[in-house]
Amino acid sequence: MYVYQLKNWPLWEWDNEIIYPILIRVVSKQQHLLGRLKGLGFNIQETTAFETEVKDILYNSEIEGNYLQESQIRSSIARNLGIENDETVINSIETEGAINVFLETTRNYQLPLTKDRLFDWHAGLFQTGRSAGIRIEVGNYRTSDQPMQIVSGAMGRERVHYEAPASSLVPSMMDEFLEYANKSNHHPYIKAAIAHLWFEVIHPFEDGNGRIGRAIVDKILCEADQVPYRYYSFSTAVLQNNKAYYEQLNRASTYTLEITSWIKWTLESIESSLSFSEETVNKVESKRTFWQQHSDEEFNTRQLKVIKKLLDNNEININSDRWTRITKCTKMTATRDINELIEKGIFIKSESGGRSTFYRLKVD
Length: 364
Known about the structure:
- By secondary structure, this protein is mainly α.
- It has 14 helices and seven strands.
- The chain folds into two domains: 284 residues, Orthogonal Bundle (Fic-like fold); 67 residues, Arc Repressor Mutant, subunit A.
- Strand 1 and strand 2 form a beta hairpin.
- The radius of gyration is 24 Å and the shape is elongated.
């Protein structure tokens, strides 16, 4: 039996004695991160948001097996935040749609969640009217009489993990959901857990329910932070433990409306995302420190390109062959560029010699 078939649906239950200590711990971590970002100033905030939002968009799709163009995401988010970015990208309808949905979700987090807004998000994700080449209903709740099932396994040996409510029930069930999403007084982190689960139980669209469900989480996390930017990413934490995510969703969708385990898992995932963000801030700070320490140094265009690439990708090692590939220069030019950086104390040569020789960027 699925939870929407229970007579007391949708009266969710959970154990506050278990949930509140975790919630207090996560809120404390959130306040520490936001306070640290505020103290570090606008540039660090901006760069942290940039790195976090790129990964959030990328991973929200990757969770479902959809791989987007990271270069296009970086270019679009940089443009939105007013950050310089010199990457040349090839436009992709799918990637641009995911970016636009994310920006509408977060930048307008204070707007109420409505069915028309959800329809716009759905239409943005499926601008061609197709999913994997198959035509689907776009910008509307599903209306097909065919059961909406989540299935795995080879043909003939399929396993049904979940069957969503009949399409005729979706409009009224979504009205109840939207009432909760807009008017609940629960702490935003608890509301995010319940709203995501509730939305996935209804599964109102033919496709894209997971991506839109996590977009709803992004909106509610913006409400928690009272800012239109993401400094930590739920989707990043989910991708790190994708199997557990689906197991928890499946368990919370069946038999009982008691969802302590699901809320606990969601809070711990948010806590993990806050830890990831602390690491991002450390890297952003390290990058800023590097440029401050070498503000008086002069670099040629090739050296700048390689250093920026290493810092942006959180790498410290490079060899001459890779240098030539990145800068399109000769081996002799690469060797001269690298030796200049060694003399300036910016690169350190590895102790190993021959073909295995590599060079390390000196960063704090």
